[in-house]
Amino acid sequence: MQKFFISLVLLVVFLSSCSNENISELSIFNNLAFRLHSKEKVMPLEAASEKKYRTYFNHHSQTQIPLLKHVKHQDYEIFIGIPYNTTLERLKKSRAEADPKDFSCAPNYCLKHYQRDSLTITEYIYRTSDQSLIFIAALTSSQRLSDSLFNALAMERRLFTKGK
């Protein structure tokens, strides 16, 4: 009987130590995941998150990019959306026409940095091997953080296919 209680206590301790704050990846879809950094927390999608996302990112009326995930750190926020009924080429064109400054593209992604409301904003659009699109946007008040965490190489390294 004593072994049963010890086992039960150990099980409870183990289960209580597992929390969302300790996850290191965020599933997106089709075995695609987003690597999380230390102290990043996956947030529930609430009205305030949706409003902030729409205010900063989903303002291109010709493109719909619903919010899928929200990640928060004390120094920045990341929003992940899934563009639909569009292509990377159309998204490149609409972002470049809006403001061609600080905009770079490669065959499988586009990256745009800009300032708004004293924030440094990054928009990263990535085309997966199966031609799906992922929209990752970040807000931070630190230009230094934006340059180091949200550059093209850092963003690409955060996306990975599970099981590979």
UniProtKB/TrEMBL annotation:
Q: Which terms are listed as keywords in the entry?
A: Signal
Task: Give the source's domain of life in one word.
Answer: Bacteria
Signal sequence annotation:
1-21
Keyword Signal assigned: yes
The record, for PROSITE patterns, names: PROKAR_LIPOPROTEIN
Entry protein name = DUF4252 domain-containing protein
What does the organism's lineage look like at the top?
Bacteria, Pseudomonadati, Bacteroidota, Cytophagia, Cytophagales
